[in-house]
Specification:
The complex is a heterodimer of chains A (353) and B (482). Chain A has 353 residues and is of the alpha/beta class. Chain A has 12 helices and 15 strands. Helices cover 42% and strands 16% of the residues of chain A. Chain B is elongated and about 110 Å long. The chains are: A alpha/beta (353), B mainly alpha (482).
């Protein structure tokens, strides 16, 4: 009797309760709707802040000038062997400190690396290192008057800006973004981004076979910037995961061998160095960009830039102990016997100030 | 003494102290009403209260109650003593045989892991031609770490934080070792990717494994402190009950004397004697144990902790010293100096200086804590080694900053007059100091634990005897009323 009445009264409340629940759901839905909206069209959502950011830095951004953007390697000063304030300061260093301080890599096989079996002196060696010795010989009269500092990829620009190094010779691509932070010499090497993957992989190059694949790049590298831009622009398949970044391109080979990533994107010249260390991986497809390596220096070190450009001219001309000899020694085995594909174009010096 | 046994306690049987009080006589008058009318409404408790109330009106009844209470008090005293001292003895035993060894084992795991990593990075600095000594050292460290983990796993409670940490470390150790092996293989082939593997291994060690090992060390130390906290407090409940039992016995004897003019009641005297023995044993035994344990903490554990910390600091310093050369200035930190100017330092050298400061402070503290010359000598020697280390390190940094990388390398991992020698000496001296302090700890804690031997069993035994004495003593008086 009592139980039945209770059930009846509950039934009465049940109706009210159900209405309350429906109202609450409707309200919650209405409130969540505006939140989900911006996620729906993420492309325009992220495009907004990017545009304003671009507008802010437009004033001193060399990339806004199409001429610079298309050929950043031409934005350098004409060669000269005259000393200036920067070179004088380097020459004024006394005793043991009379050395050129250069930021290099110690992990790029055949470019700048320490041969583990190179003996006790632990000298760095490679194509970049040869060029450094040449510059030191020209400026200080001693090819060994160099203090090498290893610099991670994303520390190259800060190292120059904070005077930790005089210059960086470290497979550094000349591009317009970097031109606003540092000054570059004329190009000394030509390369392009390329995909590296295991031979057994289904990846065939920089294309849709990268769908759902994890791609490794070095932090602060042009490779990462390119992938990021392409992904935003829809040129790279959107399911490709480019979130893995490492301090050095060689760390990508470690991740690739451990199966943590499926492919590596880096400069072809460096990718070839990686492939040379592991016969089970190979370059996939052709280079999909054209890039030039340059020596990076402080933005106002005009005399040093001109001097390095003069050294580069001489270095290219030197047939016995110059560019070609160094290429043959270090790179012909990993790249191509014929160096024509890697040779920089005849330099142009379009920068005036 | 033999008289009372025959007359009173024997008939009711069994000799259980509480039993003889209630049975035949008392049940007579009071149990008459129940069989009559309403048996359902009366509870056993109410009946008992009525019975006691009725008994309290006659002298034999009172005597029975007093006897029961005295016996109960003495037994309770014995039981609480046995219980509290079992707990303390178990905790003290844990301190000596479980938690301290585990805390040391955890410190050893940390040390072995860090040392293995340092050996691996030294091997990298030496290039492909790794020396047999550095390889052996690395292998030994890995073996030690693995053995330490097995021990820690066996001694940790399942589902505890320590057990989880041990599981994690057990999983990561082979991963780490795999990375180092790959690094070695590539180094031998002359490929720089070996160095990349070593960096990856180092990252795993520094960012995942060492923090876990530190957690393990911390949680084992916490357990050690908890065991000390369980072993050392005075057993106040037992002491209070002992005093209460003695007071009760004294009052009963005084009452006896007032009523009968008899000075001694053998049973009660025996009960008093046993209770006094238990109380004295309890207080003296625990005080001695406490003193031993406190000494083992102040002169053993504190020294051990300080020395372990110093050893870890020296290891970290050595690791960072190596990494300074491995990284070649790749990492920097900017800090404000005393004048407020921003100065850029090499990140690893900056950490090295911090570790050396920690080491210096630790050694100074250890010197202060060392209470004899045998304990002080190795610490003083380590301080000397550290000073030389700092000098040689400064020279190596000077070389490196002037671009003489080779010279700097020789000053750090070279075979003669290198900082490696100093680090090894510091490590060896600290090891000797640790061994000495461990012996001191074991002696003091062992003495403390010995003082508790047999206390709980003895207390229980004496309490039963005392209770029997009290019951017999009261029974002697009771028999006079038959």
């Amino acid at each position: 009797m009592r139980g039945r009445r209770l059930r009846a009264s509950l039934r009465g409340w049940g109706g009210v309760g159900a209405m309350a629940v429906v109202c609450a759901l409707a309200a919650a839905f209405a409130m969540l709707l505006p939140l989900t909206q911006p996620h729906g069209d993420g492309s325009t959502g992220t495009g907004g802040p990017g545009l304003t950011h671009a507008a802010q830095v437009a004033a001193d951004d060399p990339c806004t000038d199409p001429a610079i953007q298309n050929a950043p390697e031409k934005q350098t000063l004409s060669p000269s062997s005259a000393d200036g304030t920067t070179i004088d300061k380097i020459k004024a260093r006394q005793g043991d400190k009379r050395k050129l301080i250069v930021g290099v890599d110690q992990n790029s096989y055949r470019w700048g690396y320490r041969n583990p079996n190179g003996g006790k002196n632990a000298d760095l060696e490679g194509f970049d290192i040869d060029l450094v010795h040449r510059i030191a010989e020209d400026i200080l009269g001693d090819p060994n008057a160099v203090q090498f500092k290893a610099v991670p990829t994303n520390q190259r620009i800060p190292a120059i800006q904070k005077d930790r190094v005089d210059m960086v010779v470290r497979t550094m691509t000349i591009n317009c973004d970097r031109l606003s932070d540092v000054a570059f010499s004329a190009p000394y090497f030509k390369t392009g981004q390329q995909v590296l993957a295991p031979k057994s992989s289904t990846i065939t190059g920089y294309n849709d076979t990268l769908a759902n694949k994890k791609i490794c790049t070095a932090e602060g590298s042009t490779a990462y910037t390119k992938l990021d831009d392409d992904k935003k622009a829809g040129k790279l398949v959107s399911s490709a995961d480019i979130s893995t970044t490492v301090p050095n391109q060689l760390d990508c080979l470690v991740r690739l061998q451990l199966g943590e990533v499926d492919a590596v994107v880096t400069d072809g010249a460096l990718a070839a160095s990686q492939a040379a260390q592991d016969p089970t991986v190979q370059l996939k497809g052709e280079p999909f960009t054209t890039e030039y390596y340059g020596v990076a220096m402080k933005k106002d070190a005009d005399d040093l830039v001109r001097r390095v450009n003069q050294i580069l001219v001489d270095y290219r001309k030197d047939t016995t102990d110059g560019w070609q000899a160094s290429y043959d020694k270090w790179l012909s085995a990993t790249l191509d016997k014929d160096s024509t594909q890697s040779e920089p174009p005849p330099p142009e010096y379009l920068r005036t100030s | 003494m033999t008289q009372p046994t025959k007359s009173s306690a024997a008939p009711p049987g069994s000799g259980v102290p509480t039993m003889p009080v209630v049975p035949p006589q008392a049940s007579g008058p009071v149990s008459d009403p129940p069989p009559g009318a309403a048996p359902a409404r009366r509870t056993a408790f109410a009946e008992g209260v009525d019975q006691v109330r009725a008994a309290a009106t006659t002298e034999p009844g009172r005597l029975r109650i007093i006897g029961a209470l005295l016996a109960l008090l003495v037994v309770a005293f014995g039981a609480v003593t046995a219980w509290q001292m079992t707990d303390r003895a178990a905790a003290a035993d844990d301190v000596l045989n479980k938690s301290q060894p585990l805390s040391s084992a955890a410190a050893d795991i940390y040390r072995s892991l860090a040392d293995a990593n340092t050996a691996a990075s030294s091997g990298f600095l030496a290039g492909g031609q790794e020396t047999a000594a550095s390889r052996e050292r690395y292998e030994q460290d890995i073996d030690n770490a693995a053995a330490g983990l097995v021990q820690a796993a066996a001694n940790s409670d399942p589902d505890s934080a320590a057990a989880k940490t041990v599981t994690k470390l057990n999983r990561m150790l082979p991963e780490y070792k795999g990375l180092v092996e790959r690094a070695r293989t590539y180094n031998r082939q002359g490929f720089p990717v070996g160095g990349a593997y070593l960096r990856y291994a180092n990252e795993k060690m520094q960012e995942d494994m060492l923090p876990e090992a530190e957690n393990l060390y911390k949680s084992e130390n916490q357990r050690l402190r908890a065991d000390y906290a369980d072993a050392t407090p005075y057993p106040w409940a037992a002491i209070a009950l002992g005093v209460l039992a003695l007071a009760g016995l004294a009052w009963a004897q005084h009452r006896n004397y007032q009523r009968t003019n008899r000075v001694l009641n053998h049973g009660l005297v025996a009960a008093t004697a046993t209770a006094t023995v238990v109380l004295l044993w309890l207080v003296v035994g625990h005080s001695v144990a406490r003193a031993g344990l406190n000494e083992s903490y102040n002169h053993g554990v504190r020294s051990l902790n300080v020395l372990h910390d110093a050893r870890i600091a020296s290891l970290k310093a050595r690791g960072n010293e190596n990494l300074t050369l491995v990284a070649r200035g790749a990492e920097t930190v900017t800090e404000k100096n005393a004048k407020g100017e921003e100065v850029t330092y090499d990140a690893y050298d900056f950490d090295f200086q911090k570790d050396m400061d920690t080491l210096g402070k630790g050694l100074a503290e250890a010197e202060k804590l060392a209470d004899d010359s045998t304990g002080e000598k190795p610490v003083t020697a380590a301080v000397g080694n550290m000073k030389v280390w700092k000098e040689r390190h400064a020279a190596a940094r000077n070389d490196d900053e002037n671009g003489n990388y080779e010279a700097a390398l020789q000053r750090v991992i070279g075979s003669k007059d290198a900082t490696g020698e100093c680090f090894d000496s510091v490590d060896k001296n600290l090891d000797n100091a640790l061994k000495h302090e461990k012996i001191e700890f074991e002696q003091a804690a062992g003495d403390g634990l010995d003082a508790l031997t047999g206390l709980s069993v003895g207390a229980a035994l004496f309490a039963v005897l005392g209770a029997a004495g009290a019951v017999l003593g009261i029974g002697r008086r009771l028999s006079e009323y038959r």
